[in-house]
Structure formats: structure tokens, C-alpha cells
Amino acid sequence: MIIDEIKKDNIQAMKEHNSIARAIFGVVMNKVLLNSIELKKDGKEQSDNDVIQIIQKTIKELTEEKDNYTKVKNFVEAENTQKQMEIISKYLPKMMSEDEIKKVIDSLEDKSIPFIMKHFKANYAGKVDMSLVNKIARG
Predict the structure, then answer these.
(1) What digits encode the pLDDT tens for the residues 46-59?
(2) Which of 35, 30, 27, 48 is nearest to 91 (CA)?
(3) 83 pLDDT more than 80
(4) Is 44 exposed, middle or buried (0-12, 13-18, 19+ CB in 10 A)?
(5) How far apart are CA 92 and CA 48, in angstroms?
(6) Structure confidence by residue, pLDDT tens digits, 95-104
(7) Burial environment of residue 28 by CB neighbours within 10 A (0 to 12, 13 to 18, 19 or more)
(8) pLDDT at 12
(9) Cα distance between residue 79 and residue 91, in whole Å
(10) Is the pTM higher than 0.85?
């Protein structure tokens, strides 16, 4: 599982005294733990897709944080935030290209927007940008 890789890399970051990596691994591991607790309340198990969604959300938050640091001309923190985004981005699956999305849409019998969106959410969660799917489907 992805979380196991993150934990292993966190230990390596500790050994290397890499405070930037340790900080972001700590954030992600805490979010994953909280999500796991919530899922267990409902009798569900955490999957890699859940971890992927957490990482994607964290990257969005880091992007906003980096932009804010840049606005106030705190370039050191902006650079550190960029490094953190790069560190956790490697745990995300390769995103589908526009051509791959078009091929999947063309292979579907029902070409209605709701059906297409539902299909991608069910089968390609974390591997596709849903706003891009929507744009292509409407195109």
C-alpha cells in the first residue's frame, strides 16, 4: 500500500535529517490516520484510492500555501513548499492523458455527461482529473 511506502520513506528522511520531507510525511500520515479512523467508524477499510485522494488534496493545499508565500515575498518558504509538493507527488499514479480519456469515452455506449462522470469516478478515481473529463465530454 502507498501508506507503507510513505512510512518507509519517512524513516529514511529521519535518518537523513531531512526536515522538509519529514514535515510533509508527518502531515500526510496524520491525515491518513484520521481518515482511517473515520472509515473504521463506518466499518470500512482504507484503500490506496483514499490515500491518493488525501495526497491530491494536500498538494492543492500546498499550492495555495506556496502562492501565499510568494505573494508576501517569502521565497524560502515558497521553495520549501514546492519541494514538499514534489516529494509527495511521486506517490500519485500517472494521470490519464486527454487522448486516453477520449478513448475511454468513445468506448462507452452511453455518452451522457452524468454517465461518463460516474464511470470515470468509479473506475479511474485518482488517475484522472475529473474537470478535464468533464471538459472533454462536453467538447
Answers:
(1) 998 899 989 999 99
(2) 48
(3) yes
(4) exposed
(5) 10
(6) 899 999 999 9
(7) buried
(8) 97
(9) 20
(10) no
Grid coordinates representing 102 are 477520449
Q: Cα angle vertex 38, ends 36, 41, to 5°?
A: 110
CA distance to 1, 69, 116, 120, 137, per residue, from 49 (Å) = 10, 30, 19, 13, 23
- How is residue 87 written as a grid cell? 516529494
Question: Predicted confidence band at 91 (pLDDT cuts at 50, 70, 90)?
Answer: very high
Residue 121: pLDDT band (50, 70, 90) is confident
CA atoms within 13 A on the CB side of 91: 29
- CB-CB neighbours of 3 under 10 Å: 18
57 is written with which cell numbers?
A: 488534496
